[in-house]
Design a protein that fits this description.
With about 400 residues, the protein is mostly helical. It contains 14 helices and 6 strands. This is Pheromone-processing carboxypeptidase KEX1.
Length: about 400
C-alpha cells in the first residue's frame, strides 16, 4: 500500500471543510468583539490568525484535488503545525482578556476615545469630550472610563473564540496523525511501495539485466564465473540476440546503456562490442554513475577533489600522507595498469577514514556521498540507504514469482 492509499482524499477534504468553518467562526467572533469595543480586551488576533488559517485550509483543498504526493503532504504538514501554534496564541490572549477586559494597547488617548463601533454613530462626541486631558496633581492625563463600564459583552465571544481555536488545534493534530500514519508505512515498512514521480520509466523503456552472470538473480556454478571483460561483452551480445527474437521492436529503439561503480568497466566493453559486431542496434549513449573506468585518472583525482571540498587541510599530517601516496602512484602506473593497483588504493582509505570532519568521533566519510556520515568499517560502501528496502522488496516470494525467479543461487 503506497502513500496515496494510506492518505485518502476524504481525510484532507473533511479536515479542510472543518478548518474553513472554524476560520470563519474565529474571524466572525473577533468582529463581534471589536463591535462591542474596538480597543479594549482585544489585540485583533482573530483577524491576522485567520489569514494563516485561510491559507492552510485552501492548500488542504488543493492537496485533496490536485497534488497527492508526499512532498505536497509534507508542505501541508508544516502549515498545520504553524496553524496549531497560531491557534495556541489565540487561546492565550482569549484567556488573558477574559480576566483583563479593559486591557488596551493603543495608548492612553486612543484607548479612552475608542469604544464600540456603535459609539461612532451615537455618543462618540461625548466619549471624546470625556477623554479631554485634565490636570491631576499638576500633570495632564485622561481618564479611561472602561474600568467603570467594562465591555462584559465580549466575554461570551472570547469564550467562543477560545473553543474554536482549541478545535483548530485538534484538526491540525488529526492531520499530523494521518500524515504520520501514512508516512510510517512508507518510511519504515520494507515491503511498502512508493511511487517515484521522477522515475525513468516515465521517459524510457527500462530493461534491467543481471550481468555478468552470477550477479543479482542470475546464477552459475562458481567455477564458471566470468573473469574477462571481453567475455562479459560476448555474453551480453548473446542476450541481445535472444531478446530481439522475442521483442524485435528493440531494433527500432534508441538504446542507452547505464551502470554505476564497477559497471564503469563493463559498459565500455559492451558498447564497443555492440558498435563493432551488432551495428543494427541503435546505440546512442552511455550513462555511468560514479564509475570505476580509468584507474590512472581516478587515483590522480582524489587529492584535488578533497582539497576543493575542504575535506583535507593543506598543512595537516593527512595531507602529507596522501601527497606521499599520490607521488608513488604514477611511477607504479607507468609500468603496468590493472583494474586495481594496491599501492594506490590506500589514497582513498586515508581520505575516507581520516578527513577533517570526522576526527576523533569514530566515524568516516560516506564513500557515496561526502555530505553524510558513515559507520566503520564499510563507510557507505554497501551503497545508498534505499538499497536495504529495494533488496527486501525484490526478495519477497510474490515479487520473485512475478518476475519468474526460481530462487536458485550460484553454487
Amino acid at each position: 500500500m503506497g502513500f496515496k492509499e494510506r492518505f485518502p482524499r476524504w481525510i484532507t477534504l473533511v479536515l479542510a471543510i472543518v478548518q474553513l468553518v472554524l476560520t470563519a467562526a474565529i474571524a466572525g467572533l473577533e468582529f463581534g468583539s471589536v463591535y462591542y469595543d474596538v480597543a479594549h480586551g482585544t489585540i485583533w488576533v482573530g483577524f491576522w490568525a485567520a489569514i494563516i488559517f485561510f491559507y492552510t485550509f485552501l492548500m488542504m483543498f488543493i492537496i485533496t484535488c490536485c497534488c497527492r504526493g508526499r512532498c505536497c503532504a509534507t508542505y501541508i504538514l508544516i502549515l498545520n503545525i504553524l496553524s496549531a501554534l497560531v491557534a495556541a496564541v489565540i487561546i492565550y490572549f482569549d484567556v488573558y482578556f477574559q480576566n483583563n477586559l479593559c486591557q488596551c494597547y493603543l495608548g492612553t488617548d486612543l484607548c479612552c476615545a475608542l469604544r464600540g463601533i456603535n459609539s461612532f454613530n451615537s455618543n462618540y462626541g461625548t466619549i471624546v469630550q470625556n477623554c479631554t486631558p485634565i490636570t491631576i496633581n499638576g500633570q495632564q492625563t485622561v481618564i479611561d472610563q472602561c474600568s467603570s463600564y467594562p465591555p462584559t459583552s465580549k466575554t461570551p465571544l472570547l469564550k467562543g473564540q477560545l473553543a474554536c481555536a482549541a478545535a483548530m488545534i485538534v484538526t491540525c493534530g488529526l492531520y499530523v496523525l494521518a500524515y504520520t500514519f501514512a508516512c510510517l508505512g512508507i518510511c519504515f515498512d520494507k515491503n511498502s511501495i512508493v511511487t517515484n514521480n521522477g522515475s525513468w520509466h516515465f521517459y524510457a523503456n527500462l530493461l534491467f539485466i543481471d550481468q555478468p552472470i552470477g550477479t543479482g538473480f542470475s546464477y552459475v556454478n562458481r567455477n564458471h564465473f566470468i573473469e574477462e571483460l571481453d567475455v562479459v561483452a560476448e555474453h551480453f551480445l548473446n542476450f541481445l540476440d535472444r531478446y530481439v527474437e522475442i521483442f524485435p521492436d528493440l531494433l527500432e529503439e534508441d538504446i542507452y546503456l547505464a551502470d554505476e561503480s564497477f559497471g564503469g568497466q563493463y559498459i565500455p566493453y559492451i558498447a564497443q562490442a555492440i558498435l563493432e559486431k551488432r551495428s543494427l542496434f541503435r546505440l546512442r549513449g552511455l550513462l555511468i554513475g560514479a564509475g570505476w573506468i580509468d584507474p590512472i585518472s581516478l587515483y590522480n583525482s582524489y587529492l584535488p577533489y578533497v582539497i576543493a571540498n575542504s575535506l583535507v587541510k593543506n598543512d595537516s599530517e593527512l595531507y602529507t600522507n596522501i601527497t606521499r601516496l599520490v607521488a608513488l602512484c604514477p611511477d607504479i602506473l607507468s609500468k603496468q595498469v590493472h583494474i586495481f593497483v594496491n599501492p594506490c588504493f590506500p589514497i582513498l582509505d586515508e581520505i575516507i577514514y581520516n578527513d577533517v570532519r570526522r576526527e576523533n568521533n569514530g566515524e568516516c566519510i560516506n564513500a557515496y556521498d561526502i555530505r553524510l556520515n558513515a559507520k566503520r568499517p564499510m563507510c557507505g560502501m554497501t551503497g545508498p540507504s534505499e538499497l536495504e528496502y529495494v533488496s527486501a522488496y525484490l526478495n519477497r516470494p510474490d515479487v520473485m514469482s512475478s518476475i519468474h525467479i526460481n530462487g536458485k543461487k550460484s553454487e
